[in-house]
Each structure stands twice: as structure tokens, then as C-alpha cells.
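Is this the right way to post C-alpha cells for a design question? Let me know if I should format differently. Anyway, here goes:
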């Protein structure tokens, strides 16, 4: 079986975007790949994050993976900082990347425009991510469209390394799920639904209760065209159709047919109900898991042990290839 690697950053509460764009697909993919899923805690340090919030987010995110059905018997599930090889390989990746190519990363450019200060860590984010992927001889990396550029730079660095030092890294490929690649905000459907959002109404969090989910969908922005069609002119309606079709595992076309002749009220309430049906059992399980920190820590430790077995082998090979004495 091919190897799959993917991760989320514990920089905030996980959203419906994370769930539909990542976790839900992971759950399905873990049946067909040797999968490795990480809480990318080192990545979250690239922004200034409160210590307590970070700590809570790490436990919650790990617990969400388990609650959503990622299976530690089938897949490796761990926290990035528990495997020190990530930080070590990242340095090698930094040394192999040109300043110009790292400067072209859209995510970095966006932050630079928006934020008052940006850290060197944020600049080096794609190189840490490249190391994450390459440590595990990864074949496929399922990502949202926003992360595709980072998978591309990872491939470039890996090919550069192989050309310079001989065949070492497997060249991974990024894959984007057909639907759910980009879930947009509910109040501003031109903006990605993100953990870092200030406007609570724009985002559905996995931990939102049923009433909150219903209320947020009720307020979702649509338009005055009064037709349920997936198209550029109707970003709000299209986003609701995307969410509905992702959860129901149907195509956008089928979702459009399902809502034929119905109004926006029905589109919103049925989509809200679909989200509630999907998320509420996960939320319940998550609550139970969060109360058992010892169990979570035990699972984190087991996952990290399995991950290190692979990661340390790769790092040793890399060190040897570049001429370090090991
Ligand atoms: P992050 O939130 O940056 O830690 O992303 C974790 C994973 O969730 C990545 O694969 C992202 O592409 C995916 N993701 C985050 N937000 C969204 C969204 N609004 N729609 C689809 N996928 C998303």
C-alpha cells in the first residue's frame, strides 16, 4: 500500500472546513493507504500563540482525530513535536531551499501583507512541512488547494536532494479531494472558512452545539437570485451546496437536483441538519475523550514511537548521504 501523510495545525479550534477538507477524507483514505496523521504543533509556533490555548488545542485536535474515526490500529496518529527528527530534517530542508523560491510562497506573502510582524519560522514553514512529508517516504499528501504550493516546493526540494546526493527521497504527490477542497465562510463566502477567523458567524466549529450550528446556517449569506445553482455568481449558495454534497457523499449535480424547486430556507435548514447529524456524534465522543487525558497521552506516545521508527531511519540515511558522521 502507498504511504499517505497529512496534518493539521493546532492554532485554533478545528472547523467544518478542516473536517470536510481533511479529516473526513482521511478517514476514508486510511482504508486504502498506510496513513500517518499528525497534530502539527511545531507549525503552530510560526504565529504568536498563547501557551494555554496551544496546549488545549493539541489535546483537542488529537482527540478529534480519534473521535472522527481515525484508527490508531490502522494508522499512525501522533504529535509532531514528539518526533524530534522533524526539527532536524527541517534544517536540512532550509539549507536546500533558495531564498527566492521560499519568498514566492503565497501563504507567506499573504501573512507578510496582513501581519505587523512575521517570524523567520513562518518563512521556513514550507521547509518544515517538506521535512514532515519526506521523513515517512510519503507517496500521497491529501491537502486543500491552499496547501498545494507547499507540496510543490516539497517535491522540488526532494528532487534537488536526490539529484545532488543520489536517490534518497520518495517524491510525493499532492491530491485535492474532488469536493470539499475549499469550504468558504458562511457570512462571507468569498473567504475561506478558517480557524483564524475573527467573525464567529463565518465559521462552524466541530465543537459547536446543534443550536449554534442551526443559527449560523440560518444567517448564512445567499443572494437575491432565488435559484439553487452552483456557479460563480452565487458563492453563498454554491458553498452550501458544497457542504451538503460533501456530507451526503453525493455530487454537486445531485445536490442541485435534490434542492430543485425548493427555496433558500430549505437549503439552509437541510444543510444545517446534515452538518448536525455528522458532527454531533463526533462532538459527543470528543467530550468523553477530552476528559481522559491519560488515555490521550498514552495514545500520543504510542503513535510517536511508531512514527520515530520510520523517521529516524530516514534522517540517518539523509545525514549519511550529505556526509555527516553518524
Ligand atoms: P490548517 O487549518 O491550515 O491546519 O489545515 C489543515 C487541513 O485542513 C489542510 O489540509 C487544509 O487544506 C484543510 N483546510 C483548512 N481549511 C479548509 C477549508 N476551509 N476548506 C477545505 N479544507 C480546509
Amino acid at each position: 500500500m502507498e504511504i499517505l501523510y497529512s496534518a493539521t495545525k493546532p492554532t485554533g479550534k478545528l472547523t467544518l472546513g478542516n473536517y470536510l477538507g481533511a479529516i473526513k477524507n482521511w478517514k476514508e483514505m486510511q482504508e486504502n493507504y498506510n496513513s500517518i496523521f499528525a497534530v502539527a504543533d511545531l507549525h503552530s509556533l510560526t504565529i504568536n500563540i498563547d501557551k494555554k490555548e496551544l496546549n488545549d488545542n493539541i489535546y483537542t485536535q488529537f482527540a478529534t482525530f480519534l473521535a472522527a474515526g481515525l484508527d490508531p490500529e490502522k494508522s499512525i496518529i501522533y504529535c509532531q513535536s514528539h518526533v524530534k527528527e522533524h526539527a532536524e530534517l527541517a534544517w536540512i530542508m532550509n539549507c536546500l531551499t533558495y531564498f527566492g523560491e521560499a519568498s514566492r510562497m503565497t501563504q507567506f506573502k499573504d501573512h507578510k501583507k496582513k501581519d505587523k510582524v512575521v517570524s523567520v519560522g513562518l518563512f521556513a514553514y514550507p521547509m518544515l512541512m517538506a521535512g514532515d512529508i519526506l521523513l515517512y517516504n510519503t507517496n500521497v499528501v491529501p491537502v486543500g488547494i491552499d496547501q498545494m504550493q507547499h507540496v510543490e516546493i516539497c517535491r522540488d526540494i526532494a528532487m534537488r536532494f536526490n539529484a545532488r546526493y543520489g536517490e534518497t527521497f520518495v517524491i510525493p504527490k499532492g491530491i485535492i479531494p474532488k469536493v470539499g477542497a475549499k469550504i468558504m465562510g458562511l457570512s462571507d463566502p468569498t473567504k475561506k472558512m478558517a480557524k483564524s477567523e475573527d467573525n464567529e458567524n463565518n465559521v462552524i466549529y466541530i465543537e459547536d452545539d446543534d443550536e449554534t450550528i442551526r443559527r449560523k446556517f440560518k444567517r448564512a449569506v445567499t443572494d437575491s437570485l432565488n435559484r439553487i445553482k452552483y456557479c460563480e455568481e452565487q458563492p453563498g449558495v454554491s458553498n452550501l451546496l458544497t457542504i451538503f454534497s460533501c456530507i451526503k457523499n453525493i455530487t454537486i449535480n445531485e445536490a442541485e437536483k435534490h434542492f430543485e424547486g425548493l427555496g433558500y430556507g430549505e437549503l439552509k435548514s437541510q444543510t444545517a441538519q446534515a452538518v448536525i447529524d455528522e458532527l454531533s456524534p463526533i462532538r459527543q465522543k470528543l467530550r468523553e475523550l477530552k476528559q481522559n487525558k491519560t488515555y490521550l497521552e498514552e495514545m500520543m506516545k504510542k503513535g510517536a514511537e511508531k512514527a520515530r521508527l520510520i523517521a529516524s531511519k530516514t534522517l540517518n540515511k539523509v545525514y549519511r548521504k550529505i556526509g555527516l558522521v553518524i
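Format looks fine. Someone answered above. Worth noting: The chain has a mean pLDDT of 95. Residues 8-9, 17-18, 21-22, 143-144, 146-147, 180, 182-183, 192-195 surround adenosine monophosphate (CB under 6 Å).
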